[in-house]
Amino acid sequence: MTVVAQLAPLSTRLREGTRAEHSQAESEGFVERLLAGRLDVAAYADLAAQQLAVYAALERASARMRHDDRGRGLVFDELTRVPAIERDLAHLYGPGWRDVVRVLPATERYVARLDAVGGDVACYAAHAYTRYLGDLSGGQVIQRMMQRHYGLTSAGLEFYDFPEIPKAKPFKDLYRERLDALDLDDTETDLAVSEAQEAFRLNRAMFVELGVAHP
């Protein structure tokens, strides 16, 4: 009898397939210095400005995905981040924040990638998985470090608050179930993994440029 090997679920393949890229991104010098308290509030504010550009692009893709029969199950209003980031920037920069924030070239490339591929369900799944599950996991550590080292309170750190998701683990489990139920074919699954790797590389490039700006 021939035994057909079962491929791992998409959520597992995304996690395992991005392990190296994830490690490289989170060990980038800017991130390490920021979390160690060796930078300043201005560095965090600059990061928040880049996050606004990225999440605006991701959530434009979410709006497109609501019309996709397979992808709409990955779109959760509870995950929407843009309004929270805008409130953070208003706190960090003041009411005229839109006139002073800048978007780095690496961030512009990240945004361009999201706009280019965000209508494809496999690519959207890759980028949404990379961003949102990270926010619900390591993002909480970042919030605590910003409070500890830079004196920030909930004002300025709303990006990391998910008031409609009181318990992260059950929600992350649900999200992974939705990923695994997408019914991607082998080619699409491979594309999702490679696009998630690209998402981490784009994120790391953004951190590199932030590190140059905030040595």
From TrEMBL:
It holds the Pfam family Heme_oxygenase. Keywords: Heme, Iron, Metal-binding. SUPFAM superfamilies: Heme oxygenase-like. The keyword Heme applies. The keyword Heme applies. This is Biliverdin-producing heme oxygenase. It comes from Isoptericola hypogeus.
